[in-house]
Amino acid sequence: MKSTTNFLILNQSCSDLLATFSRIIYIAVLQDTSLRKLWFGGIPGLVTCKLFLTCLFVPRNFSVLILVAIAFDRFFAVTQPFRQSPLSKHLKKTIVFLWLWCIIASSYMLAKGSVQNIQDSFYCDYNENPDQVFNEWKEFNVTAVVIFCLLPVLVVVVLYTIVCYKLWSRKVPGEQTNQNQGSAEALKTAKKVTRMMVVVAALFVLCWFPYYLTLLVQFSSHGPRNYKSELSLIWLTVAFSGFNPYIYLTFNQAFRTGFHHLFGKNSRKIKIPKVMFFRSQSVELEQM
């Protein structure tokens, strides 16, 4: 399982975990303002506050960039099957670069985040006047939506459109030679992986686009924030991280085998066989 795609999925999983925990803390703070009093002062409070605010943005930006990297890897594997992709050659450097890029892009949080002491209570927030915060916050979010949402999703759509066209239009010769059987098996595997990642990309769009569109509408209208709708949209973005493992278990036999191997007999209690049963029906329908 030590393939380029799986290493990228591993990093996406780490990003999903970080995004989930930071978003849950943010939801608790947003829903109950008194919880912000649990913060503490001093240098440790300032450092943790800046890191917390940064963690709200780094994982979400990294997640979409990983989807772009996986799409590029699938594109190169399908269009140039006999060559090693540049991403595979420089995998570690690429992953480190993506993490650093996302951290640098969120440097606004590191710079502006501060702990305020108001009536003996500590608040992790931005130490600026409201008008200046709104203007800077607007520029930061609009830029993030364009660079880390619209453009990456456009690239992913274009790459997977080309990949799907080439895969499903490719035909294997009918003679049952060993070479043709190997080509047919490789084509089948490529279709499975591509189908899995297309579902993940589509799920990202469904879970994250409402949140991004709401940000754009909010900053364009300069109106009051609707905290209830914002909470529901944040929960929807967290749901993206929760759905991903089930997608990988559904579409990838290697993940299911590794899951059973890791958890042993306890994994039998989880209803993975039903997922496999429904999927086996879909495979039979495809064969028919």
Keywords:
single chain, about 290 residues, mainly alpha, 11 helices
Write a short abstract of this structure.
The chain is mainly alpha-helical and 288 residues long.
Describe the structure.
This protein is mainly α. It contains eleven helices and two strands, in the order H-H-H-H-H-H-E-E-H-H-H-H-H. It has helices at residues 4-31, 42-55, 58-79, 86-89, 91-105, 107-112, 130-169, 178-221, 227-251, 253-263, 272-287, and strands at 113-118, 121-126. The protein has a two-stranded antiparallel ribbon. It is elongated, with a radius of gyration of 22 Å. It starts with a helix and ends with a helix. Mean pLDDT is 78; it is low at 272-288.
Written as H for each helix and E for each strand, in order along the chain, the element string is: HHHHHHEEHHHHH
Order of strands, widest sheet: 1-2
Query: For the terminal residues, how far apart are their CA atoms?
Result: 30 Å
The helix tally amounts to 11
Rg calculated over all Cα atoms: 22 Å
The biggest beta sheet, please? 2 strands, antiparallel
Can you give the helix content as a percent range? over 70%
Q: Decide which structural class fits the backbone.
A: mainly alpha
> Low-confidence stretches at least 5 residues in length (pLDDT < 50)?
272-288
Shape call: elongated
Mean of residue pLDDT? Answer: 78
Q: How many strand units? A: 2
Portion in beta strands? under 5%
